[in-house]
Amino acid sequence: MLEACENDIQKIIEKIESIKDYNTTIKKRKSELKKTVDLIDNVIKDSAISDANLRLLIDEIKIYEYKNIIRS
Q: What stretch of H or E contains 70?
């Protein structure tokens, strides 16, 4: 009986820790999204996007080469 209670307590502690991690992740993501929204608001206000603003909005650009192979 005591062992079952200890197992339940351990599971609850693990759930609490995972919720704390989840909450931290949500707060971080919310902060990142707020920065992006503010940047987009500035772009709309200026009616143009500068090179610097574009670089802030885009994390990465991937370029793939496509080769069209014609077979006879």
A: none
Q: Cα separation of 25 and 32, whole Å?
A: 11
pLDDT tens, residue by residue, 19-63: 888 888 898 889 888 988 888 888 888 887 778 777 777 777 777
d(CA 64, CA 43): 29
DSSP character at residue 48: S
CA angle 8–27–51, rounded 5-degree value: 150
The domain segmentation of the chain, as residue ranges, is: 30-59
User: pTM value?
Assistant: 0.47
Residue type, 47: S
